[in-house]
Structures are given as structure tokens and as C-alpha cells.
Amino acid sequence: MSIHISAKKGDISKVVLQPGDPLRAKYIAENFLENPRLVSQTRGIFYYTGLYKGKEISVGASGMGFPSIGIYSFELYTEYEVDTIIRIGTCGAYTTDLKVFDLINIDNAASESTYAKYAWEMEEELMPHQGNIFDIINETAEELSLNAKSCNIHSSDIFYRKNPEIPEIATKYNCPAVEMEAFALFANARYLGKNAATILTVSDVIPTGENISADQRQTALKPMIELALEAAWKTV
Ligand SMILES: O=P(O)(O)O[C@H]1O[C@H](CO)[C@@H](O)[C@H]1O
Ligand SMILES: O=c1cc[nH]c(=O)[nH]1
Q: Which atom number of ligand 1 is nearest to the Cα of residue 217?
């Protein structure tokens, strides 16, 4: 048990798929894993472990934002001997070059956040994915004939803002979309010498206001889920 996860040691796999939403974790466990076991539900943040093609894989939520994923990823890496976390989330596109349901595999997360600075004395605005799981995801996408573009992401503390302009940092680092967790996940993994990747599905196109429904955010993310599971399977 850790402070925020009540699973017993050994109840969580070396590889964890991590959506923001606890109900997405439940959906994945119930629809993609064999014999899923609920191993933690502290604070309603569900963690499940089950079999995917004969190998144990865990899926559990990060919650939203850097503080939340900072806590869950740190405890998974340090208290459950997790080697690899694959965040599977949604993002808002800053450009109409991306369409809803497009898949992206994140190379670097750019952020104005002070999370990495105050947690780990890392001063960089740009935090790279960690380890070889990013490459495994790219190879796996090719094998599955899935178009998962590699790009940078703006990782932001902010969902609602006054100024509708694309934030400066997103332009500076060529980020076509925004989400709220990858930077802290990559920083934790970098500090701890672990593996971390982030795959995102475009849920909103900010300039046009097009978006997918809350139900679809939970369930209509099948290509991303299959890509993450197939990549995770190769690591255990
Ligand atoms: O779909 P998830 O993984 O929660 O990711 C995105 O959705 C949430 C905002 O709606 C933020 O957590 C953002 O990063
Ligand atoms: O962080 C996010 C996620 C989805 N859509 C957004 O606009 N922002």
C-alpha cells in the first residue's frame, strides 16, 4: 500500500496504462483485459490488473493535472516497482491540421509549469519522453497500420483561459495540441530512471469548437487503447 493506492505489493504489473479518467480505466479493464481484478479504489481512482494476451498488465487513472499524475506515477514507480507508464489521454488541438480522433505519440512535453523545477530541480521547459517505450509505440503503430503522428505537446495547468490565442510556449516548441499531465509524468520518470510515454487522442479542435462527447471520451478511444496494450505487452 502507498498513501494514495491501496493495492498490495505485487498486485500491480511492471507496466501500467494510465488514463486521466477512472471510468476510462474501468472500461479498459472490463473490455480489454481477461480476469481483471480491482486492486485499488482509494479516492475513486480505480486500478485494475488483468491479462492481455497471456501477460499481466495494469490500468489505473492519474486524475487530472500535474499534482495528481505526479502523485500516482511517483507511487507506482517507487512503491510498486513499475518500470513503464503509458499515459493514454485526450487533448485539444490548436490547429485544424489535427482532427478529432487523430492519434499522437508524444516526443516532448513543453510546459510553463514549475513542477519539475520544484520537485526535481530540473529547469527545462521541454521534457522528453523517457526510455524506449516511445519507439516501441511507433513501431507497434506501424505494425497495426495506425497513423500515430509523433509530435510535441503543450502540457498546461489550464483548461479554461481568458485569452483564446495559442500560448507562446506552444508556438515556441511547435506543439499542435494541449493536455495537462505528460510533463509531470516525464519529469518523474526522468528523475527515477523509469520509462514513460504519452499517447493522446484529439478530443477537441480548439479553433472550430468541434469536440467529442463525455461518453466518447470514456469509450471511443479504441485505437489508442489497443496501441497502448500491444506496446505494453512487448515490455513484460
Ligand atoms: O483525457 P485525460 O487523460 O483526462 O486528459 C485530458 O483531459 C482532461 C481535461 O478534460 C485533462 O486531464 C487532460 O490532460
Ligand atoms: O487538456 C485538454 C484536453 C482536451 N482538450 C483541451 O482543450 N484541453
A: 1
